[in-house]
Each structure stands twice: as C-alpha cells, then as structure tokens.
Amino acid sequence: MFFAMEVGTRTVHILGVTAHPTAAWATRLARNLLGDRASSFRYLLRDRDSRHTQAFDAVFTADGIEILKSAPQRPRMNAHAERFIRTARAECTDQILIYNEQHLRHVLAEYAHHYNSARPHRALQLRAPADDPDVIPFPAQRIQRHDVLGGLIHEYRNTA
Q1: Is the pTM of the predicted complex or chain greater than 0.90?
Q2: Which of 6, 50, 59, 152 has the fewest CB atoms within 10 Å distance of its CB?
Q3: Which residues of the chain have pLDDT under 50?
C-alpha cells in the first residue's frame, strides 16, 4: 500500500496497492498525488525506501516541495504514518480475509473514507478530519447505526 497523510488534518490518501512495488510505480503515484494538490504541500516526510529514487524526489521538488528523509531505523520520526498503519491493521485488515489485490484496494478505500469522515481523532478533539471545525454537534433525537466493511466497523449518524 502506498499512502500519503496530511499531518495537520490527519487526512489519509490511499494512492495505490500492488504486490510488487517498483520505483517507477511509486513515481507515477507521486505524480497522481500532486495532480491538483501541489499548492497545499510544503514538505514531504518520507522514509529511505529504495523505491524513493531521484525521479520520485524530482516530482516533488519541481513543485517547490521540500523533501525530508527520516533517519535510518527511526520509526518515531514518521509517527503519524506508523500510527495509521497500526490502526488500519488492527481495525481493518487483520479482521478481514483479503483474497486479491482488487479486494484489498476496495477495503482500503472504504476504510480510508471511514478514517477521514467518521473516525474520531484525539489530536482533532475527537472529530474526524473531514468534519467542519465550526459546527458544534448537538445531542441527537435519534441515532442510526451504519455498517462499514460488511459490519466490521459501525458508524453512528444523527437522523433527526
């Protein structure tokens, strides 16, 4: 899985899934990410994976984005990404039998939608990344449960 996270908002973008990642694949996904978002990024914090070549870095530096590489064998330097991976595994992929790449792509896309629009985050005062910060939720008259990923995750919505 190749993903990007906007650290300030905790918004996750699942960019691609493959069993055999290559440097060309990672570079293509980087170009796709920057399609219309180039002006919103200032920095890219990345690990030292061999798939992150000079061509990969050039995609970002051409748009004025500074590349910051994490130190070798220091997962805490990229703690937000490591936390998302752990959360996605615990809440989603460890609970479902994934039978092919297309199924994994679908499951991760649905989980990312849940993560961005419904899952509360402590750093965001128990709001989801897509929540409007100016809206104060009032107690609901009626709450309805909505199942995600076939009932693996439950979301609750105000219906009144």
Answers
A1: no
A2: 50
A3: none
